[in-house]
Amino acid sequence: MLKQKIINTIIVSVIILSSCNGKDRQESAENNGINEAFLKNVKTVSAVLSNRQQELMLTGKVEYDPDKIISYVPLISGVIDKTYFSLGDKVQKGQPLFDMRSTELSALLSEKIALEADEKVAERELRTAQSMFNDQILSETELLEAKGKLMQIQAAINKIKSDMGVYGADKGDGIFTVNAPMSGYVVSKKALSGSTISPESEPVFAIADLTTVWVTANVYASDLRFVHEGMAVEITTLSYPDEIFYGKINSLSQVFDPEEKVLKARITMPNSDLKLKPEMSVMVTLKDESQVRALAIPSDALIFDDNQYFVVVCRDAMHRVSASENFEIKNVTLLGHHIKTTYIASGLTEGDKVVIENQLLIYSGLKEE
Taking 60 as the threshold, does the pLDDT of residue 49 lie above it? Predict the structure, then answer.
């Protein structure tokens, strides 16, 4: 009887100790942020070798071709009398854009009128001199002086006409008309009736030929190794969501923009249908399909921290309690992206089991250990 009591006491003690030890292990697992149920539900994929396909999305916008835009800054002061155009209008070269009144132009006009009167007198004097020279009454030197005087007056008149042609066409009554210097679309207008203009003022208007435009894409330092001149690109816009515009990178700036901290990639685009409007925001997709094989993992597995990329790798056996015994953080270097796949340059080996769900939780836990 006594022997049976002793045996029962030992059994109870073992059960209590076992339950305590199990509780301690569970608490230990929970303290480390990992329990058995969590470990069973960890999802992983293996890093595999694949032909690299790279796709990079860049933001950008449409800009004028600077070689096909003219901004008109007046060379003289005056007051705008009337305008004949609106912002966005299509204009032809030589078409009147606005009338202006200018005391400077009026002074030039008065000078021109006076010189034209002097020209008539000089022509008459030359005819008289030529007749007298033919009758041997006047010397050749005196004849040449009469010719020279007329030529000087005519040169002065031509200069004034040239100047007035630059400033505007005379309409009489002190009003001059400024004509369009090229064909295109009015993309800027500062001309208002009654406003004063001068050589120090802003451009009165700008005309651009929009049949060719630039698309400038923003290239950040982290993406620079993926971008080079000659790459084919696809351009999409919110205005035409179902349409893709195709082009290639014509040039890549070698100097970072001091404000945006990006390099500018330029794509020259034909725009005969005028769908691409200046200042329109666009998305630029770069594709580079090569036969180079590289390790590939889902992009969702990446963790970006402290300007570096990391992944959480699962060890072969996951029966231990500590997170550091089941998982490992690896710093990786990227080759590029394609849709939802990322290609790895270094940091992983083929077959590594990369965690693709709750990796941030595990990463945080490992960093705290």
Answer: yes
